[in-house]
């Protein structure tokens, strides 16, 4: 594939990601995507086969779960390290790629026809978190009564900064720092689970 073709495809994906986050999938036309990308309107069909497939391609190119988490197989041999990797990466991702994390939130909250695509990328990550919680309890590393409730707590704490909405003025730092937030969130979760070595 020629470099110029690759560049154009990425320009279309970046443009679509920006517009989908700003005005929603339904509110964005192929023409708007191409205008934003500086591309011929026919290229969306030529490269991707339509707007729906552009949506899927955005996740294939930008969603971090498969790339970053797949590099941590050794961590998943230990429940605390495995869960820590998941919490850190999800928190960092949602604070650094605001466009894609906004798209995920929009599609899941509205339960759109594209929620299935979103779920195909996010569900394996949360399934791994569930496995880490289950394994950690068996090994006496985590202490909780209900696996479902523990998973909901981990998911809620990890994504809490996405839900603050109009309460953001209550925060001393309205623009949260990704690494700092990831570490604070992780410490909070590990302490609640009674993990060994978690802060008192």
From TrEMBL:
PROSITE patterns: HTH_TETR_1, HTH_TETR_2
Top-level taxon of origin: Bacteria
DNA-binding span(s): 29-48
UniProt domain HTH tetR-type: residue ranges: 6-66
Gene Ontology terms, MF aspect: DNA-binding transcription factor activity; transcription cis-regulatory region binding
UniProt keywords, alphabetically: DNA-binding
Keyword Nucleotide-binding appears in the UniProt entry: no
Tagged with keyword Ribonucleoprotein: no
InterPro entries linked: DNA-bd_HTH_TetR-type_CS, Homeodomain-like_sf, HTH-type_TetR-like_transc_reg, HTH_TetR, Tet_transcr_reg_TetR-rel_C_sf
Protein name: TetR family transcriptional regulator
Provenance organism: Paenibacillus elgii
């Amino acid at each position: 594939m020629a470099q110029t073709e690759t560049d154009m495809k990425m320009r279309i994906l970046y443009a679509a990601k920006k517009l989908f986050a700003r005005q929603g999938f339904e509110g964005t036309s192929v023409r708007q995507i191409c205008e934003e990308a500086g591309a011929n309107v026919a290229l969306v069909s030529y490269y991707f086969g339509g707007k729906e497939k552009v949506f899927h391609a955005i996740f294939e190119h930008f969603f971090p779960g498969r790339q970053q988490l797949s590099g941590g197989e050794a961590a998943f041999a230990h429940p605390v390290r495995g869960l820590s990797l998941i919490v850190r990466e999800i928190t960092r991702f949602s604070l650094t790629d605001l466009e894609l994390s906004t798209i995920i939130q929009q599609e899941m909250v509205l339960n759109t026809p594209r929620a299935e695509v979103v779920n195909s990328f996010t569900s394996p990550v949360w399934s791994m978190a569930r496995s880490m919680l289950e394994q950690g309890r068996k090994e006496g590393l985590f202490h909780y009564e209900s696996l479902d409730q523990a998973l909901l707590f981990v998911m809620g704490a990890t994504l809490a900064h996405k839900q603050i909405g109009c309460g953001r003025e209550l925060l001393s730092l309205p623009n949260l720092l990704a690494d700092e937030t990831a570490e604070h969130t992780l410490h909070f979760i590990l302490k609640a689970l009674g993990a060994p070595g978690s802060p008192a």
